[in-house]
Specification:
It is built from two helices and five strands. It has 118 residues and is α+β, with helices and mostly antiparallel strands. It has one domain. Strands 4-3-2-1-5 form a five-stranded mixed beta sheet. The longest helix has 10 residues. The protein is globular and about 60 Å long.
């Protein structure tokens, strides 16, 4: 199921957040901690300390939306060892993360861009 269509960027906040935070608290984290604009249309993904819940904040040009997922069993394979405080991931990596695949260990081939064959 495609929940988010034509998402410009997907940013993960790598440190766990207090899940009592809602739209206002998370949008402040986006501006102050992630150094991004919450109005960009990007998805901003947050995880709880136990890695059993996700919140996704995004702006849809009319207001903020907050998407929430709770796992009944298992944990999200959160990329804690990847460098940086904030991680920009691809749509494919986002789907892998939701499916429980460790995106630190699984990477696709890098796209090549050539100008000429000769």
């Amino acid at each position: 199921m495609k929940m988010f269509i034509n998402t410009p960027k997907i940013y993960l906040h790598k440190q766990p957040v207090d899940f009592r935070k809602s739209i206002n608290g998370l949008s402040l984290l986006v501006e102050q901690d992630m150094q991004q604009s919450p109005f960009s249309g990007a998805l901003f993904v947050f995880c709880n300390r136990q890695r059993t819940r996700l919140k996704v904040l995004y702006w849809d040009s009319t207001g903020f939306c907050l998407w929430y997922k709770r796992l009944e069993k298992d944990k999200f394979r959160w990329p804690r060892l990847m460098p940086g405080k904030v991680l920009c991931i691809s749509e494919q990596q986002w789907h892998w993360l939701l499916q429980g695949i460790d995106i630190q260990k699984l990477t696709p081939h890098q796209p090549l861009q050539y100008q000429s064959v000769g």
